[in-house]
């Protein structure tokens, strides 16, 4: 009679499988994520089921990233308050649309807006802790980004060879140790590349804190504006856009003083301004007609594109109603 594996043994086997097959695990996660888009409109209660599949696939990816991270010995700060806040913010980021849809299905529109307010209050208060206590500027979206697994493992392996060289005190020149040199057949005779881990001083600049504060409070301000002026009023749309522009204006003053990762996050936020075209009332007044005409024209000129354009036209209004809230970070 075969012995049943315990839960601990199953988890150990799963961790070993993830560590040994990171590329295949990534492919499985990608298929699971994309399947959530194909479910939409195909089954009963498809929006809720689609968002549930998406949330579960992203949470699985987050869990697998942690397994790979821990396997390479990079788990020293996983229990810190900062990492725990980022973890919960990331979980909320992946699950908030599903929670809103599920609450709306059970409790109606009033329940949906109550859930949205609670979620945004949690995100706002958590972001304030990251900003003022840990000087996290700007806060990433999501706070724990997906792990670039191949690049991460290569970086860890290169860091293991860090003791293979030393730096001369006077000239600052990096010199390889004799015992740290690779075999002659593998030498490329190139200068040693040392990663620059210097911390940018821009973290203390007051303008950056003000810019991030505007970004953090924008969802709360926008929800209040929607309550006052209505969900399809131009006033609430312009208030949100004005807050984004003000935040970018403060950041632009110090773009040359911040790190590459900080500039990358700010650039991502700037690109998200395109989504204002898909948000009410801009979408209802102008964008909807332009987008639909473009998709219909494309599908008629290129027959193969009809398989992509027609579903988008069919579900565009539905997706716009679900996803394009201005308070999403």
TrEMBL record:
Pfam families for this protein: Pex16
Cell compartments where the protein resides: Peroxisome membrane
UniProt GO cellular component terms: peroxisomal membrane
Any one GO BP annotation for this protein: peroxisome organization
Stored InterPro entries: Pex16
This protein's UniProt keywords: Peroxisome, Peroxisome biogenesis
Predominant subcellular localization, coarse grouping: membrane
The keyword Nucleus belongs to this UniProt entry's keyword annotation: no
Protein family membership: Belongs to the peroxin-16 family.
PANTHER family per the UniProt record, alphabetical: PEROXISOMAL MEMBRANE PROTEIN PEX16
Protein name per the record: Peroxisomal membrane protein PEX16
Organism: Pieris brassicae (White butterfly)
């Amino acid at each position: 009679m075969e012995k049943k594996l315990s839960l601990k043994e199953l988890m150990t086997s799963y961790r070993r499988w993830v560590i040994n097959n990171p590329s295949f695990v990534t492919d499985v996660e990608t298929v699971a994520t994309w399947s959530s888009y194909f479910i939409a409109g195909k089954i009963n209660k498809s929006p809720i089921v689609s968002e549930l599949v998406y949330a579960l696939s992203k949470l699985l990816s987050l869990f697998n990233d942690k397994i790979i991270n821990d396997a390479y010995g990079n788990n020293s700060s996983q229990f810190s308050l900062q990492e725990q806040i980022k973890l919960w913010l990331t979980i909320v980021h992946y699950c908030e649309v599903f929670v809103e849809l599920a609450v709306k299905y059970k409790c109606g529109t009033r329940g949906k807006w109550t859930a949205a307010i609670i979620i945004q209050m949690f995100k706002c208060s958590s972001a304030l802790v990251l900003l003022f206590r840990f000087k996290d500027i700007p806060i990433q979206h999501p706070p724990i980004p997906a792990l670039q697994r191949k690049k991460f493992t290569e970086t860890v392996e290169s860091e293991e060879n860090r003791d293979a060289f030393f730096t001369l005190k006077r000239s600052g020149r990096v010199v390889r140790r004799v015992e740290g040199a690779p075999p002659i057949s593998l030498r490329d005779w190139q200068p040693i590349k040392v990663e620059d881990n210097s911390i940018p001083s821009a973290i203390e600049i007051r303008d950056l804190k003000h810019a991030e504060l505007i970004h953090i409070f924008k969802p709360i301000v926008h929800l209040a504006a929607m309550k006052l002026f209505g969900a399809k009023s131009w006033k609430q749309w312009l208030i949100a856009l004005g807050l984004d522009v003000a935040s970018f204006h403060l950041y632009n003053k110090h773009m040359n003083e911040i790190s590459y990762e900080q500039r990358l996050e700010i650039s991502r936020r700037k690109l998200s301004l395109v989504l204002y075209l898909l948000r009410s009332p801009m979408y209802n007044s102008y964008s909807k007609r332009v987008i639909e005409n473009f998709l219909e024209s494309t599908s008629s000129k290129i027959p193969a594109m009809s398989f992509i354009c027609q579903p988008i036209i069919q579900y565009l209004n539905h997706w716009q109603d679900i996803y394009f809230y201005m308070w999403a970070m």
